[in-house]
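Chain A, query sequence.
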Amino acid sequence: MSVKSKEKKAQAEEKEDIKQQEPVENETSDLDSLLEEQQKRIEELNQEIVNMKDAHLRKAAEMDNMRKRLQREREQIYRFAKEAAVEDFLPVSDDLVRTLDMMEKNNPDSPYLDGIKMILNKFDAVLEKNGVKRIDKAGVPFDVNIHDAMLIQKAEDDSIESGTVLHVVENGYIMGEKTLRHAKVIVSE
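Chain A, predicted structure.
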């Protein structure tokens, strides 16, 4: 073989090697761009997952808050309805107390006296069961939260301090923390 033919053969082999290298480089750059696209897509999907988790947590918290608010509203409606019903029965309790007082003063031997006491005790038990307490005590300090002063007068006994409830004109009632009706009282001067 001649030198020229060897050179031609070497050049032909070089060209062949270059042609074979180009597709490998093209394939590598294609794979790199595909890998880059897939990594971007993975990042986008991961961000989408984070956003969906965040949205889910927000909705769950919103539902929990709504459930709590509805429970509070339901309890408040129940409490208001109960208070309204109890307030309607307070005059009945007052009438029973007045009847008992009148009978004890005017007719202590009446056979009806024990019956009225039993009815009043049952009525008080029902009120107490529902968290209602009667404000009917004299001799306690005047409290604007539960008392309404109808009259201020000088006490018959000088040992009674000023601002003491001398007499309860009309009973008051408390239900839990709320005063349903202030006791109407006479207070010492």
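Strands lie at 132-135, 147-153, 165-170, 172-175, 178-181, 183-188. The longest helix spans residues 3-106.
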